[in-house]
Give the backbone structure.
Amino acid sequence: MNGTSIGATMHPPGSWAWPVGAIAGVAGGGVEVAWITLYGRLAGYDGVAVARGVTQSVIPELAAAPSAVPLGLAIHMGLAVALGIVIAVLVPRLLPRLVGTALEPVAVVALLVGVWAMNFFVILPAINPAFVTLIPYGVSLASKVLFGVAAAFVFRFSRRHFPTNQREL
């Protein structure tokens, strides 16, 4: 059979992962922005510093530009979409027995926690050490967990309600 097992259905390779992954990335990235904004308001913290920090991490020469905050949000959302697509492609290939089960969201969240650890302990300290001090580790970790929950919800919802390009086993 040609495809990836999804519970009781099959998806032809590539037919589902890219668009649903992009939607999962938008949902996850949006939840992260909302979480950091909420934290900023409750803690009396300027949340735009995080968006500016994203710009500084990717395009350092634009960190002080007036467009640094919207550019940081755009970069964040672009990376979130890419991450959603990567997860939508990798989970069915690496963990096919979990897809469509109650354990799939756990796997998705675990992957996002791994991404957070790589970002905050390896990548960001190398390219922008100041970024990791902008918000407490627990707040940034919660942000990535929320991304994972939102992405897992999109994956589950899309499989149940939009079974396009599927064949019964």
